[in-house]
Structure formats: C-alpha cells, structure tokens
Amino acid sequence: MSENQVSFFAGANTPGGFVSLFDGLYDAYGDWKVYIIKGGPGTGKSGLMKHIAAEVEKAGLFVERLNCSSDPGSLDAVRIPEIKACLMDGTAPHTMDPKFPGAVEEILNLGEFWDADRLREQAGAIRETAALNQEMHRRSSRFLSAAGTLLEENKRLLAPSVHIDKIRNYASRFAAREFGKPNGKIGTEHRRYLSGITPDGIVVKAGTLPLLCRRVIALDDEYGAVSRYLIRLLRSYALAAGLDVISCLCPMSVCQDIEHIIIPAADLAVFTENSFHRLPFEPARRIHARRFLEEEVLGEHRCRLKFNRRAAAQLIDESISLLKNAKSIHDRLERFYIPAMDFDQVDALAQEITGRLLS
Predict the structure, then answer these.
(1) With a threshold of 0.90, does the pTM exceed it?
(2) What is the DSSP annotation of 7-65?
(3) Could you tell me if 246 and 192 are in contact, meaning their C-beta atoms sit under 8 angstroms apart?
(4) Could you read off the pLDDT of 185-227 as tens digits, one per residue?
(5) How far apart are CA 222 and CA 279, in angstroms?
(6) Long-range CB contact pairs, 74-81, < 8 A, 24+
C-alpha cells in the first residue's frame, strides 16, 4: 500500500472468529450507490476495486481502501464518500446481500465471466482445498481465543487499580480543550480496524493517521486497562460536540474495546501503544497510562501480567503461522479459477463502473 493512501481493515480475525464491519460502510438510507461484487477466489474482485480506486483518485476524489485481513495485499472494499459510492467484496466470510436491491445496491457477478464446465471438472479438488483452508482458519481462531483470554485476564487483574475518577477528570479537561462544548448536534461514528492479525503478522495501518489529522497523541498502555475507559470517554465527548469519529476496534479484545480514535475535524487522533504495536513516527505527545493506575496493585501482579502477555504473544504467533498456511492454500484455490476466467470482460466491467462513478 502506498504511504499516501488512507487504508483500514473492515473485518478482522479475532478471538471470537471473523468479525465483519461491512454493514457500517454505507448508509442504505443516505442516497449511496453500492456495488456488491460476487465471485470465487482469484476471479478479480480485488483487482477490479484497485483499478476503480486508482482511476477515481486520478479524477481528484478521496478514496478509502479497506484491506483484507486474510491477505493484506488485497482489497475487501473501497469507499468514495464524496460521491457516496462504495464497492465491496460480498463473499464469505463477510457475505453481503442488498438491503434495497437495484435502488441502492447492485450486484456485480464475476461468475458470468468464468468457464463453469472447466470448474465443474475440478469440483472435487476445489471442495477439498476449500475445506482445508477453512480448517486452517478455525485452528487459527482457537489460538487467538486462547490469547484473548490471557489478555482479558490482565485487564481484570488491573481493574481494581484503575482510578476511574482520574480518567473521567482527565477526559473532561481534554475534551473541553480539544473538542469544545456540545452544540446540539451529534457526530457520526464510523467503526474500523486500524490493525489486523494477518498472514503477514500484526499489520497496523499507522500511515493512515497523519493523512487524516496532523496531531497524533500516543496513549502508552501496555495492558489496555486504561485505554478501554479513556478512549471511550473521549469518543463520547467528541460525538457530543458534533464531531465525526472513526472508532478503531481492537481485534484482540473479547469485548470489542475501542483501541484508537481518529477525529479529522479536530485534526487529532489518539493511538494506544503497547508491545504489539508502536507508532512508526514521533507523536505530538504521550499520555502514560500508569498515572491512572495504583502502583501497588500493578506491582503485586507484575509477574502474572508479564507471563500472560508473553504467552499471548506466542499464541498469536502460532495463529499467524496458521493464517500463512491458510493463505498458501487459498492461493492454490485461486489457481483453479484464474485459468477459467475471462479477465478481459472483468477489465471491461471495471471501465464501465469507473465511467458510471465519474459521470
């Protein structure tokens, strides 16, 4: 991904299995035009979206890319908010169906461009390969589940040490300084994943932050005991002040905690740092979570906290290894479909949709 492209994940491999945020990519009641792309692996869904995204950007429109957590090099969706347009992969595991067929959503069926007879001849091998891919994902999810349990235990161990009143007071002062007073308007929340557990490891789209806001504040919180409260409070204050918020969920949180927030209108983002993800650039300033924790309780559980964190990291590494296997198997699955596709027709469809959007 180019460094000057705004990019997130709209789905994540989590301790509870795959979680999709695709329903929140557009407003079915808000005059959007949505293209839901159907087709098998290797049929050109991601390539079609990449082509359209590049052409639309050349025309001067802002594009938000949503990458695939099972293959970060591929796209799951593209949003063009200025013209209220969205394209998305509507196949499993983030299956999407139209809410208002034809009126809002249109299905692009890439299956029209494949040789069904050729694929039918290989049906047995396709089924076997697909089943093996699914099994790799199931095994990966079990390791993430175990890791998530350990990370949640750390939050429970530290819960008695968290000074909630201090966090509330800090959040109130922060909001008054950065967001202003409520004005009767409520902001809109958009949910995304800024990071993902992928075959390439833990991928963090940190390059997106400076593209959306000039100031990035780092919240140094190794165990997530403070961020789960502070980030949610800041989110609430920003929305109450009429500011739109991008809430970035933690893929490893069993409770779907918000890990980072981006508030473009305030030119501000708050990014939670820990041993799993650090900012690749110097933040505007840092907030240290320890100021909100009781040191005595932290010291009492220090050994257990470190053990859980190390064990969770090993479990996540094993999950990533299985995702790599799944990606390799998925590549084999694509090799059944690629020779059966007429990609000239896919390219022609991409040109047609680009023309519609830019007209």
Answers:
(1) yes
(2) EEESEEEETTEEEE-GGGSS-TTTT-EEEEEE--TTSSHHHHHHHHHHHHHHTT---EE
(3) yes
(4) 999 999 999 999 999 999 999 999 999 999 999 999 999 999 9
(5) 14
(6) 74/46, 75/46, 75/49, 75/50, 76/9, 76/10, 76/11, 76/22, 76/46, 77/10, 77/22, 77/25, 77/49, 78/49, 78/52, 78/53, 79/25, 79/26, 80/56, 80/357
